């Protein structure tokens, strides 16, 4: 065990629901076994997750009530800086780019090793975040990325001090793949926000439905665009065949027997939901979005069909290809779980432990 302390920072109100939140908990729980003290600071009014290791200290910094962006960001930075100074950690590790920017400003002048973990797609950043995030990562001691392409976006200075670690496969209840007969359904799961592009999936399904009216579309999740999607479904006359059942805590078990899983996102890191789909053997269709998570998980499109982003016609074409070709559906079903060995919990946990060991030793011996 390292005689050191580490702080993780995240903004997810419910760590156990979002991809970045889940990974924050996963890495923090690993660190509870190798660091003397571990802290998780949440920049929201969320509650402590039950699955967070009991040895980890949990701190809430509720968002300011101010409607002025500059004021509430400033208050957030000041409060976060005070919390970090009180803890006096050796390492600070914020998850996702906007939290990394806030945390970097909050730690300026403090004697900490700063190691942000990027979980999204830097290629989609807009001004001024593009400038701020590049400044943050170039002024970090080390950086964590999920994919080589995300790391490479920031150039040689960042590449030379970075670790690339994919998301792990975290099986629930000894989950096994299913290769039997499937329902006549198309399914997806995620947040109902702009970047998930469920409007494209609904439009794609409207094309599929004309050829295969026996199929239904099920989209699990919640978010700000639910009403918009329901209106779209109504306008397309699909009320009877499209459903939004709500949030599910167990995606693998929920989708295990469905027909085809579709991920229509504009961008993704390494999407946990796609790992879940591949793990149960459901044939998958995904956009080939940056920075390359679906490309990695489907082994360059060999274990799942990839289509361009923002292309409902191509989504529909890929879905129909699976529906109309049972041999292809069976092949994709059986190939999907092959990715799991390369992202097993043991393997990915070891990568995180080795990375922190390198960071601690580099600081210790001034390498």
Structure characterization notes:
This protein is α/β, with parallel strands linked by helices and 367 residues long. Helix content is 40%, strand content 17%. It is built from 14 helices and 13 strands. It has helices spanning 19-31, 69-87, 97-106, 129-138, 148-152, 156-159, 198-211, 226-235, 251-255, 272-279, 293-297, 312-323, 326-335, 345-365, and strands at residues 2-10, 35-42, 57-60, 91-94, 113-114, 143-145, 162-164, 185-191, 216-222, 242-246, 260-263, 284-287, 305-307. It has a 6-stranded parallel β-sheet, with helices on both faces. Strand 8, helix 7 (198-211) and strand 9 (216-222) form a beta-alpha-beta unit. Helix 2 packs across helix 3, helix 3 packs across helix 4 and helix 7 (198-211) packs across helix 12. The longest helix is centred in the C-terminal third of the chain and has 21 residues, at 345-365. The chain is globular. The two termini are 20 Å apart.
Largest sheet: 6 strands, parallel
Order of SSEs: EHEEHEHEHEHHEEHEHEHEHEHEHHH
What is the topology, as strand order, of the major beta sheet?
A: 10-9-8-11-12-13
- Give the CA-CA distance, first to last residue: 20 Å
Number of helices: 14
Strand residue percentage: 15-25%
- The structure class reads alpha/beta
Number of strands: 13
Helix content: 25-40%
What is the overall silhouette?
globular
Rg to the nearest angstrom? 21 Å
Instruction: List segments where confidence is low: pLDDT < 50 over at least 5 consecutive residues.
Output: none
**What is the average per-residue confidence, as pLDDT, rounded to a whole number?**
94
């Amino acid at each position: 065990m390292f005689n050191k302390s580490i702080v993780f920072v995240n903004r997810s109100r419910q760590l156990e629901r979002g991809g970045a939140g889940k990974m924050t908990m996963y890495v923090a729980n690993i660190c509870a076994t190798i660091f003397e003290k571990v802290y998780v600071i949440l920049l929201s009014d969320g509650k402590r997750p039950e699955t967070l290791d009991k040895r980890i200290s949990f701190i809430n910094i509720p968002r300011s009530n101010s409607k002025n962006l500059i004021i509430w960001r400033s208050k957030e930075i000041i409060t976060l800086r005070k919390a970090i100074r009180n803890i006096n950690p050796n390492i600070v590790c914020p998850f996702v780019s906007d939290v990394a920017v806030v945390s970097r400003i909050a730690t300026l002048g403090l004697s900490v090793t700063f190691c942000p973990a990027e979980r999204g797609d830097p290629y989609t950043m807009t001004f001024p975040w593009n400038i701020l995030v590049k400044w943050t990562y170039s002024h970090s001691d080390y950086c964590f990325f999920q994919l080589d392409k995300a790391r490479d976006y920031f150039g040689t200075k960042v590449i030379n001090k970075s670790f690339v670690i994919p998301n792990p496969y975290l099986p629930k209840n000894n989950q096994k793949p299913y290769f039997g007969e499937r329902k006549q359904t198309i399914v997806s799961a995620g947040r109902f926000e702009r970047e998930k592009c469920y409007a494209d999936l609904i439009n794609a399904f409207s094309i599929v439905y004309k050829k295969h009216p026996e199929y239904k579309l099920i989209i699990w999740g919640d978010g700000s665009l639910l009403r918009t999607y329901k209106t779209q479904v109504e306008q397309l006359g699909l009320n009877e065949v499209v459903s939004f059942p709500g949030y599910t805590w167990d995606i693998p078990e929920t989708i295990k027997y469905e027909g085809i899983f579709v991920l229509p996102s504009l961008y993704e890191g390494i999407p946990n939901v796609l790992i879940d789909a591949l793990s149960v053997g459901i044939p998958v269709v995904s956009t080939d979005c940056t920075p390359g998570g679906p490309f990695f998980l489907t082994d360059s499109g060999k274990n799942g069909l990839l289509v361009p982003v923002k292309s409902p016609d191509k989504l529909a074409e890929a879905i129909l290809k699976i529906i109309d070709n049972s041999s292809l559906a069976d092949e994709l079903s059986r190939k999907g779980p092959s990715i799991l060995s390369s992202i097993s919990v043991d393997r990915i946990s070891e990568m995180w432990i080795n990375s922190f060991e390198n960071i601690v030793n580099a600081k210790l011996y001034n390498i």
